[in-house]
Amino acid sequence: MHAPPSKKTAPPAATGKGATPSNGGTQAAHAPAAVSPASSLPAQGPAQTHKSTVHRDDRIPFNTKLRFESDDSAFVIQGTTTDVSMSGAFLNSDHLPPGVQEGMEGVVFLEMSKGGNTFEVSFHCSVARVTPKGLGLNFENEVE
């Protein structure tokens, strides 16, 4: 039995353990072999493999308003952020009330805009650190 004629494709790229190309198994000959589609940043080398294209700790520049509300409703803290990651954000605020502590749990609300409409996205979080400039918030999610 003869194998069907093969399509002209570039050699398979090193896409990490268990990963498959998203275009049905073919890659354009001009496509770079080790570029992360989400960030368009080249991979660091063949020894590193990536489970996903966005890592929990990759910081993405993102200027927006943030609001933290503690689970016990004792604290509502408003501020801004300049970047976010899948694992958290830093809430810049010059007005931290006394009593805010690491480990405190709550919900963080991020303000987003699209097409002239403004809406909020919320994540359950915990306070990872408290500084004079604001709060380090750790998002509690199951994204891998």
Write a structural description.
The chain has 144 residues and is mostly beta strands. The protein has two domains: 1-51, no CATH class; 60-139, Beta Barrel (Thrombin, subunit H). It is built from no helices and six strands. Strands 1-2-3-6-5-4 form a six-stranded antiparallel β-barrel. The protein is globular.
What tags apply to this protein structure?
six-stranded antiparallel beta barrel; Thrombin, subunit H; 144 residues; 2 domains; globular
Question: Number of domains in the coordinates?
Answer: 2
N-to-C CA distance: 43 Å
CATH topology of the largest domain: Thrombin, subunit H
Q: Within the largest sheet, what's the order of strands?
A: 1-2-3-6-5-4
Specify the overall morphology: globular
- What is the CATH C level class of the largest domain, in words? Mainly Beta
Number of separate strands? 6
Supply the CATH superfamily name of the largest domain.
predicted glycosyltransferase like domains
**N-to-C series of helices and strands:** EEEEEE
Structural class: mainly beta
- What is the share of helical residues? under 10%
CATH architecture of the largest domain: Beta Barrel
* Largest sheet entry: 6 strands, antiparallel, barrel
What is the number of helical segments per DSSP (H or I, 4+ residues)?
Answer: 0
* Proportion of beta-strand residues: 35-45%
Q: Over all CA atoms, what is the radius of gyration?
A: 21 Å
Poorly predicted runs are 6-52
Mean pLDDT: 73
